[in-house]
Amino acid sequence: MKHIILMIMIMTVASYSVEEQNIKPTLNNKIKQVIQILKNPSLTMKQKENKSIKILDPIFSYQTMAKISLGKKWKTLSKEEKIAFTRAFEHKMKHSYIDKLKLYKNQKVITETPRKVKQNRITLTTKIIGNNETYKIINSFFKNKRTNQWYIYDIKLAGVSIIQTYRKQFAAFLKTKSFRQLLKSL
Amino acid sequence: MIKKFYQNVILKYSLTVLILTILSILLFGINVNKLEIDASAETLLLDGDKDLEFLRTLEKRFQTDDVLIIAYKPVTPLLSDNSLDTLTKLSKDLEALPMVASVDSILTVPLLYSPLTDMESLISETRTLSTHDINRTLAKNEFLTSPLYKNSLVNKNFTISSILIHLKKDTQYTALLEQRNTLREQGKSAISVEKIFKQHRDIQRKKINKNIKAIRLIISKYQKDATLYLGGVQMISNDIIDFVKSDLAVYGTILILLLIIVLGAVFKKIRWVLIPILICTLSVIAITSALGFWGWEITVISSNFIALQLIITISIVLHLIVRYEELHHKYPKASLKRTILLTMLSKITPTFFAIITTIAGFASLLFSHIEPIINLGWMMSAGIVLSFIISFIIFPTVLMQLKKIPTNKQYQQTFSLAKLSSHIVLSNSNKIFAITLIVILFSITGASQLIVENSFINYFKKDTDIYKGMKIIDQELGGTTPLDVVLSFKKDQEDKPLISLDNEENDFEDEFNQEADQDQYWFTDEKIAIIHKLHNYLYSLDATGDVRSFATMLDTGKILNNNKPLDSVEIALLYKKLPQKYRDIILAPYVNIEHNQVRFSTRIKDSTPNLRRNELLLKIKQDLSTFLNPKVVTYRLSNLMVIYNNMLQSLFKSQIMTLSLVLVILFLMFILLFRSLKLTIIALITNIVPIGIIFGFMGWLHIPLDIMTITIAAIAMGIGVDDTIHYIHRFKEEFIKDYNYPKVMQRTNESIGYAMVYTSITVIIGFSILVLSNLVPTIYFGLLTMLVMAAALISNLILLPKLLLLIKPLTKDDTIKKIN
After folding, report:
1. Contact at 8 Å (CB) between B731 and B683?
2. N or C terminus: which one in chain A shows less Cβ crowding within 10 Å?
3. Which A-chain residues 147-176 have CB contacts (< 8 A) with chain B?
């Protein structure tokens, strides 16, 4: 389980907005940076977290992730509600996995060649080599029409999509409770 | 017509008729071999109980299996080398049995915290107590604290452990049962399937019996190393069958012997011992052959029908004997043939009406909705008719072959209860009514306390191994009677109305909707919260012991996750990565994603004092209605606790209904017979009082209404009514002579009273042996039958004549009119 959770952190850390042709080399570089941070004994846990988040932030499209996770309900929200939800969702994502950093135990990380599944979709598979098993992570990138940059919108760990999990969760929640209550819970 | 039939056929060709009758019965008697006992769970349950169907569906859906439990209490500490060695050998012996699929114990269950490690290591390697480097101190701590094991696999003092014997599934049984039920529902004939089903069921029953005997034999080998008790639902039903079978054989024989002794002591004539025994034997052979021929099975409830058959037969024959002796004494010079003819003719009408009303009493059982009780109603009705016919053929034809011998009125001096009763009636007016009033008050107050409550543990005497074993499992290892709660979540639906999206948004929606229904995404926080809430609620109830559900796995996972609850993503990942062996233990029995259901498996502590099952189930339902939102999830209770309670509640309702029906039928019968409203009311009061006493007695002594005791009211009516009809019939005959009520009463008591006394004494002594049974319901049945016989006798010999003297329903004018 620790390896599995760690995967999320490493991949979010390693992701960033990027040009299509640079996805793989940039990703590898960022992985190295994060691993260095995690291995650095002179840094406190808090410092490691902060530095990793700084590397994390730029490429993640939290708004797209928030939008997908809410589904069609997103369209019914006001501008302020959308902003508030995106902020809360971003906070939840980070908060859920930030403490998993301490789980890193010098595992090897390999990145495969990106695969273009559609005109505006690329998947990039990364493997974490554990003691007994190899864990596959599929990063899903989409191309932002305005900026022409690629952003992460979902991560699939061992066949489990993070955003899909949140979609189901929020849909179940909103069956019996209001959007305000969802916001509060996040 | 009847007179001519007796004169020209029965008595004229008495030897031929006797031989033919006996031969016919004996020939038909070969069908006795086909008679079977069926004490499976289905016979104790409601006909077409929907909850039983639901349970069978659940068993398939959640892959539950039949389990027997052994409570293992070693002489050395539980984790000592000696103890583990004994446990290993015992498990091996058990696993070798053909019906055993696997055996689980503290040796084989996975140890997840000994020591605490990462999930990856746990998934790849299963550590058990048998693993070479296992730390026993850590293991002990895990057994005592893990949600998977505490208070179920081991007791809180760590002195007793459960050995779980998983039995092989009988898939053919389920398939045949389903096939039979489907055909029935479709209104098609299920005879051929029924036959195959019964054959298979009988074979399986023998195998189960053999299996339990084999397990007990294995257990006995290790008694010097440990105290071992066997428990489990299959064992309970198996033992009930065994007890019923042995009771039938042992007590049936002893009853006959006791009857012989009592008849000999009362009449002191061999013929008055042999003739009743002959008639009883032939009646029992006839009815059991008829049951075997028609393929009707004896169940736990109807297992006492032979005893009932004997009571009624003895009653018929004793009335004939006493009447014969009376006529013989009165007309010593009359020919044998004439005396016999007069005996038969004078008794045929009251006996006929007596048995008709008895049949009416038992016919009321046909409305109970409980199959074995309905069958008892049919059996008794058929049995009574056979007893009547056989008695009225065999009695005269046997007597015709014998010489007349002087009467022996000594028995009237020896058993002067009849004389005493007439004395009491004449001299204690106020006392009789006062006592009757007290009895009525006793009955009403007692009946209001009647409980429809029972538990399997109370079926067995406290000093039996079965009781002791069940008590340990009940109180120390998580309870005995299973109760399941099943939640069905509503399917997730698309939001309506449809909202328009742009291309990119549609793209994302399509992409995610494609995989939305995959199993790993089923575990939302909402569902997890509901599962935890319900699990904790069930655990908080005093009556519940062990509670298992998906929450058990979540709590275990939390411990492994440094005491942090697993979130939806972690659970989804675990679901994907979990090996099949763990999935079968912690997931499959509790979650069925295909049907959107989760199952909570609990066991009720049967021995909880003052446990009120129906109230408990109602409380659970009410509480669940409060905290579960029906828009999100619905619930249903199931398993043996529910089904057994359905049966008990149905018994209660049917008891009220059958009693009401019996009273109505009796009212009509009495009106038809006596043609007098006053006599009818007197007769009804005379019979209601003994029944009231029974229910009062049961209420005050907290004897529950149960599958055995349910029949007691019908029996009380059936037997009590006989005496009332004979008495009133005789009273009317005597009344014509001098119209003097007190003298008429005296003559009636001192003639018909003897037959009533002998019947009651014979039955009371005969039934006293039932109190030696190992099955508590049988003991109650014996005691209550004795009580009802005594109460009916007193009511018919004292209250009935008293009411007749008080109300004076017969008048000289009316009687003359009727004669004219």
Report:
1. no
2. C
3. 153, 157-169, 171-173, 175-176
- What whole-number distance in Å separates Cα of residue B696 and Cα of residue B690? 10
Rounded to whole angstroms, how far apart are CA atoms B183 and B523? 39
DSSP letter for each residue of B508-559: HHHHHHHTTT-GGG---HHHHHHHHHHHHHHHHSTTEEEEESHHHHHHHHHH
| B124 → chain A, closest CA residue | A132
Q: Which residues of B touch A8 (CB under 8 A)?
A: 569
Q: Given A1, A76, A172, which is nearest B524 (Cβ)?
A: A172
**Angle at B660 (CA atoms; ends B655, B662), nearest 5 degrees:** 95
The Cα B165–Cα B322 span in angstroms is 60
| A2/B120 CB distance under 8 A | yes
* CB nearest A76 (choices: B499, B524, B574): B499
The verdict on A102 touching B (C-beta cutoff 8 Å) is: no
The Cα A145–Cα A143 span in angstroms is 6
Q: Per-residue pLDDT tens for A97-130?
A: 665 555 566 677 888 888 888 888 888 888 888 7
Residue B483 distance to chain A (closest CA, Å): 28
Residues B319-347: tens digit of each pLDDT? 899 889 888 888 888 888 898 999 999 88
CB B293 within 8 A of CB B34: yes
Phi (first) and psi of residue B188, to 5 degrees: -95, 165
Other CB atoms within a 10 A radius of the CB of residue A131 amount to 11
Stated as kind and residue range, the H or E segment containing B69 is strand B67-74
* DSSP state letter for B225: T
Q: Which residue reads 């056929």 in tokens?
A: B9
Query: Residue B737 in contact with residue B707, Cβ under 8 Å?
Result: no
Q: Chain B residue with minimal CA distance to A103? A: B118
A173 to chain B: nearest residue by CA?
B526
ipTM of the complex: 0.83
Question: Could you tell me the strand order of the sheet in which B226-231 lies?
Answer: B100-104, B161-167, B67-74, B226-231
The CA–CA distances, whole Å, from A27 to A118, A155, B121, B499, B702 equal: 20, 14, 29, 37, 78
Contact call for B124 and A3, based on CB within 8 A:
no
Q: How far is B574 from chain A (nearest CA, A)?
A: 8
Give the pair of three-digit tokens for residue A86. 């995106």
B292, amino acid identity? G
Beta bridge partners of A141: A122, A152
Query: In which residue are the tokens 């002796």 written?
Result: B325
A19-65 pLDDT, tens digit per residue, is: 777 777 777 777 778 778 878 889 887 788 788 777 867 778 888 99
- Per the CB < 8 Å rule, is A171 touching B492? yes
Q: What share of residues in chain A are helix, strand, coil (percent, to 5)? A: 60, 20, 20
Cis peptide before B497 (omega within 30 of 0): yes
Nearest alpha carbon to residue B566 among A85, A2, A172, A133: A2
Interface of B with A (CB under 8 A): 118-121, 124, 492, 495, 498-501, 504-505, 507-509, 512, 515-516, 520-522, 524-527, 560-561, 567-570, 572-574, 576-577, 629, 631-632
